[in-house]
Structure formats: structure tokens, C-alpha cells
Write a structure and sequence with these properties.
It is built from 3 helices and 7 strands, in the order ββαβββββαα. With about 190 residues, it is an alpha+beta fold. The protein has a domain at about 5-135: Roll (Thiol Ester Dehydrase, Chain A). It has a 5-stranded antiparallel β-sheet. A hairpin with a 3-residue loop joins β4 (about 75-85) and β5. The mean pLDDT is about 95. The protein binds coenzyme A. The site of coenzyme A (COA) has 11 residues, from β3 and β6. Coenzyme A (COA) binds near residues 86 and 87. Keywords: Hydrolase. InterPro entries: Cytosol_ACT, HOTDOG_ACOT, HotDog_dom_sf, Thioestr_dom. It holds the Pfam family 4HBT. Belongs to the acyl coenzyme A hydrolase family.
Amino acid sequence: MAEAAKPVRTSQTTITELMIPSYANFGGKIHGGILLSLMDKVAYACSSKHAGAYCVTVSVDRVEFLKPVEVGELVSLHASVNYVGRSSMIVGIRVEAEHVKNSTIRHTNSCYFTMVAKDDHDKPAEVPKLILETHDDVRRFIEALHMKEIKNKIKDEMNDAKSTIHVNDALEMLKTERCIIAFKEKE
Ligand SMILES: CC(C)(COP(=O)(O)OP(=O)(O)OC[C@H]1O[C@@H](n2cnc3c(N)ncnc32)[C@H](O)[C@@H]1OP(=O)(O)O)[C@@H](O)C(=O)NCCC(=O)NCCS
């Protein structure tokens, strides 16, 4: 049986790692996959601490690599449980890159991982409620709730869009796109 409730601060987790040359891509910047792996690790640690159970990653949102990370920077990933459902948790991750020589810190991106706690039979397990102790805790919980609702709506719309596509009817629409239709339309 899960503990009744836990404050956000008790599961907040930071992972810091030095970006070494073997993490670089052909352009000399850090591979997105290296950063994704670190995000997944910190989301796992943070959610498992809150749940007191083994957790799995279900979904990843808002991962964008708009500001490249350089070799030699010290990357810190700060994770916090923003929202809990019954067995799911939305973990917010703030990624910062520190230039070790001059100690300047850049915020490179923020993203959101949905994690689910599992019981010993591999079934989703109930997690403790979240105790919101600060204004920021409340703001993040509400934001996560809104984002979850928006995501569910988009998911439904995407499923509808997929099921209603008729290729022959949509060919006209593709005339303004950067593609060439290289087959004959069926009668
Ligand atoms: C995640 C998983 C446990 C869901 O199992 P399920 O049988 O669909 O269970 P449920 O329908 O009860 O969903 C459990 C929770 O996951 C949430 N969930 C399921 N699919 C989701 C999705 N696509 N996005 C966000 N949350 C999702 C549900 O809302 C529910 O949350 P709640 O308990 O807080 O209400 C199952 O899909 C799984 O084990 N996936 C593999 C995870 C994994 O191996 N990850 C490693 C990375 S590849």
C-alpha cells in the first residue's frame, strides 16, 4: 500500500554530468540521445523516489534541442514531480549547462516525462498524493493538469484525423506541399 502523501521536495532530484568528447555528434555538439538518456534517468530516479516503487517511462513531451550543448560543459538536470494521478506522475525536468571556466549557466530546455509506478506483478501501482507546499508547487500541478487535458484532446483529434484520411481525396491539398505524387490516381 502506497504512503498516503509526500511533499514535492522529498523526491526532487538532480543529476550532473560532464560532457566529454565521446558524447559529441559529427557537428561537435552533444548528441540529443545522450541528453535524452540523462533525462530518462533523472525522471526515473525522481518518480521512483516519490512512488517508492519501480517506475517506467510512458510518454515524453516538449523535448526540443534548440540550444546546443557543448563538449566541456557541465550539464545538470533538475527533476521534480509536478503532478500525480493514480499510478502516473508527470515529472518536470529543467536542463542547465554550466561553462566550467567562467561559471555561467544556460537554461537549455525544459521537458516533461510521464512515468507510471509498477507493483511486483508489473501492474500500475497507486502512488502517494502530492503535498503542495509552495506557490510554485501549486502552479506546476495546475499547469501539468492543463497540459494533460490538452494532450488528451490532441490525441483524440489525431486519431480522428488518421481514421478519416482518404488518399485520393487529399491529393489536391498536397499540391502546395514539397512533394511529388509519383503514382496514378485510382479511378
Ligand atoms: C505504462 C503502462 C504501465 C500502462 O499500462 P496500462 O495497462 O495501459 O495501464 P492503465 O490504463 O491503468 O494506465 C496506467 C496509467 O498510465 C497512464 N497512461 C497510459 N498511457 C499513457 C500515455 N500514452 N500517456 C500518458 N499517460 C498514460 C494512464 O493515464 C494511467 O494513469 P493513472 O493511473 O494516473 O490514471 C504500460 O503501457 C507499460 O508498461 N508500458 C511500457 C513502459 C516501458 O517499458 N517503458 C520503457 C520505455 S520504452
